[in-house]
Amino acid sequence: MLKIGDQIPPGTLQEFVDVEGGVCSVGPNAIDVSAATAGKTIALFALPGAFTPTCSAQHVPGYIAQAEALKAAGVDEIWCVSVNDVFVMGAWGRDLAASGKVRMMADGSADFTKATGLTLDLTARGMGLRSQRYSMLLVNGQVKTLNVEAAGKFEVSDATTMLAQATAR
Could you tell me which PANTHER family the record lists for this protein (predicted)? Predict the structure, then answer.
């Protein structure tokens, strides 16, 4: 399992954006994790699934609400990672008005999640292999903080905890 001090594993995530800008065109865009984290401070949080109760009602909205404060604390970008396809993540981002605040990153085949060692098997609940709920602060691709939730909990991976960690560094 990934731990503090490790480099984020290499891999590719997918992002769907509605408006062209910078290097992102409309439609699915492959994001090379190593290249996209180089030279940046990233608040990355991951969760079991798009449109699920805790994720939609608390986790993502908390990061959207704290986006400006996190940026003021030195965070360049906020990433939400979930084992869903890029179109679902794009629709979820639109539904939550995340554009410009939180980048909604799809890990469709769970390859990135497997590389972190932070998988969650929800096969018995009909959801297959997913990501555990966690957050981490990355500086130049290195894990500076890592907050992994206990099963069924939402206590340490929230935006308020991340803001305190980003401010303290």
Answer: PEROXIREDOXIN, PEROXIREDOXIN-5, MITOCHONDRIAL
